[in-house]
Amino acid sequence: MSTRSGQAQRPNGSTQGKICQFKLVLLGESAVGKSSLVLRFVKGQFHEYQESTIGAAFLTQTICLDDTTVKFEIWDTAGQERYHSLAPMYYRGAQAAIVVYDITNQDTFGRAKTWVKELQRQASPTIVIALAGNKQDLANKRMVEFEEAQTYAEENGLLFMETSAKTAMNVNDIFQAIAKKLPKNEQTAGQGSSGQGRRLAENDTGAKAAGNCCK
Amino acid sequence: MHFEIMDYELPTNFDVVVVGTGIIESIISAAASRIGKTVLHVDSNNFYGGLSSSFNLESFLKLNIEKRKSICMEHSSLNDTETFFPINNSDFTLDEVTHQWNITNKNKNYSDEENSAQEDIIAKEICAKKWLKDDLLKESRKFNIDLTPKVQYARGDFIELLISSNIARYSEYRSITRVLTWFNNTLEVVPCSRSDIFANNKISIIEKRILMKFFTSLDDNEDLIIKDYASKTYKCFLTDKKLSKNLIHYILYAISNSTDSTLCLEGIGNTKKFLKSLGRFGKTPFLYSMFGSGDLPQEFCRLSAVFGSVFALDQPIHGLILEENSFKSILIGKQKIKAKNFVLGLNLTPDFFLNKVKKKFISRGVFITNKSIMDSDNEPLTLLLYPAENDKNPCTVLELPWLSSCCPKDTYLVHISCNQINNPEDDLKHCVKNLFTLNEDFKAFKPLIFYSSYFSIPTNSDENVNLHDFNNLFICPGPDSELDFVTAVSKAKELFLKMYPDDEFLPRAPDPEEIKWDGDEEPSDIAQ
């Protein structure tokens, strides 16, 4: 899916600025806090013992950036990463990814690097990747140094922040940083996926793409 | 992605264990998960889809050497009351794959410089880009090569199910741009819509009127047709309708995708299906899923996971354990996993349940070419229904441009399929010869083949299976030779309803906005 952008019309005819929609996927080992980050960002909530999200294909959240409204369609792994069985369909057409690790667990940082490689191999070449060192509230049990992760991120052209879904630290910021880095016009945004298809929906008979919902 | 260590054990108690990730298994997995059943979905392959999968070029080239791992079983783990049925069936795997490159790694070294300059100019006119083998290999991941390509009718059961279950939002589709047929030794565009028919300059005005009248009359005299043509062919019906040779060809071989022996009622049914699907999403009745047909099983697996199923690929699946006339558990690695019901793909079914009927295959050809089989202003996605010829079966040709996300820009990926008679190369050679060239012959304006591959896909159906009255084992047939997934959907529904007769088959999944969350009283603010 490439960016679906358009001008929103106010009733009086004046324009309200551009609206861009992006698919963002979350990656990372089980229990690093992927779902918690989304829940914090989308609902402003945190649950210590977060059950995996049942029945949600993806969640949406909107960010305002200057004259542009960025709508994220945020996809969670639905647990398919647990036995290393994430379907490639998951990253199809994704324009952004957050690769999450747990700063108190060195293994999850190693796995995060594997996910970055996988994205570089499988996903669109223009995908914006952010690395999130989650559970920053547990910094006293830290096993992954900030500098180590930052150096790795710089070498690989990734955005990087340490986050805490629990305290909300840097959660909005990381999404905001991704939104800033994403291309906001059709020409540059379409390069990743080779073209825009059509999402099928009931009563859709026209030529317009069904996902083109610029509310 | 391969990891050296298996650091998690699987849970060991489920309502349903699904083995294999073909389309039917995946639909059943989604349906069971959707109604709240606990599902473990495993595959012995390290990819989704089995014989319905798609591969990038590099993986596709390696397919031949991937053989099923030999299976060893520790009988010590069985009790006296248990009987073990090993899963070791190799009857339904991919047959011998051949690969042939028609381009080299180096540019041709022209000795005659004068000629070379001239040829270069002509070559540029014909093909914008010169490909070398290495160039194509470098673009490997831009390829999504289907083992079993499928197109879907816009109002067929599969698309209706995608929409009604809300699975459609997981992926994107492209409309097939045009339907072609092979008639009088040349390619012809099949008129699909009313405007197509009127714009077509190959049929006369009188024929156009007759054709329109024929289409609108199909619903009228149904009883009469059933009575008079129950045992007659569609061709006979069309001839009796006094349609011209042209029109009979279009309707019989393309619109209804029939043969000379197709029965009248089936032919009429197919024609109606075609007409009904027109104009819903595009100018032709057909859709193709971006990134290849191999993503379709994954969409159902995703829904299954979203509702809580556990997924594990690349599993050492040894066999089923029977106790007191029903299956109790499945042995995966060293774990014995219990379930109430077991769903198996036919290619993973123990030999014991297979009848010795004659095996059937689909002959498949895959081609990478430089341009479309029929020139067009835009980059078309073409379905060619190539009629039966002499001793050859009808062939389905699907030509994908880069916009389908199945091949790089400036190439076309072509799939040809037919029911097997001899072997793939022999079954398809007449069709390949008429459509393509292997020589850079500038006078023949046919597409040039860069690479070709032939293989056989085993097809199988219920006639292969004998369940011997074990009522908690459900076996899913493999790929079929239909254009679409209509048979797969009805089979999946049938098996699901046998398992859970009182439950709804894939009710609509909620949209993100409809999901209730704990502490959801206040509407969330826009994050700033």
From TrEMBL, chain A:
Cellular component terms (Gene Ontology): early endosome
EC number of the protein: 3.6.5.2
Transmembrane residue ranges: none
Record field: catalytic activity: GTP + H2O = GDP + phosphate + H(+)
Protein localization: Early endosome
GO biological process: protein transport
Region Disordered: start-end pairs: 185-215
Keywords assigned: Endosome, GTP-binding, Hydrolase, Lipoprotein, Nucleotide-binding, Prenylation, Protein transport, Transport
SMART domains: RAB (SM00175), RAN (SM00176), RAS (SM00173), RHO (SM00174)
Molecular-function annotations in GO: G protein activity; GTP binding
Location, primary (coarse class): other
Similarity comment: family membership: Belongs to the small GTPase superfamily. Rab family.
Designated name of the protein: small monomeric GTPase
Organism name: Brassicogethes aeneus (Rape pollen beetle)
Lineage, broadest ranks: Eukaryota, Metazoa, Ecdysozoa, Arthropoda, Hexapoda
Automatic annotation (TrEMBL), chain B:
Any one annotated GO CC term: cytosol
Biological processes, Gene Ontology terms: intracellular protein transport; small GTPase-mediated signal transduction; vesicle-mediated transport
Protein location: Cytoplasm
Composition skew (Acidic residues), residue ranges: 519-528
Pfam families membership: GDI
Main location: cytoplasm
Keywords attached to this entry: Cytoplasm, GTPase activation
GO molecular function: GDP-dissociation inhibitor activity; GTPase activator activity
InterPro entries the record matches: FAD/NAD-bd_sf, GDP_dissociation_inhibitor, Rab_escort
Residue segments, region Disordered: 506-528
Extent of the signal sequence: none
Coiled coil: none
Function field: Substrate-binding subunit (component A) of the Rab geranylgeranyltransferase (GGTase) complex. Binds unprenylated Rab proteins and presents the substrate peptide to the catalytic component B. The component A is thought to be regenerated by transferring its prenylated Rab back to the donor membrane.
Family indicated by similarity: Belongs to the Rab GDI family.
Identification of the protein by name: Rab proteins geranylgeranyltransferase component A
Protein's organism: Brassicogethes aeneus (Rape pollen beetle)
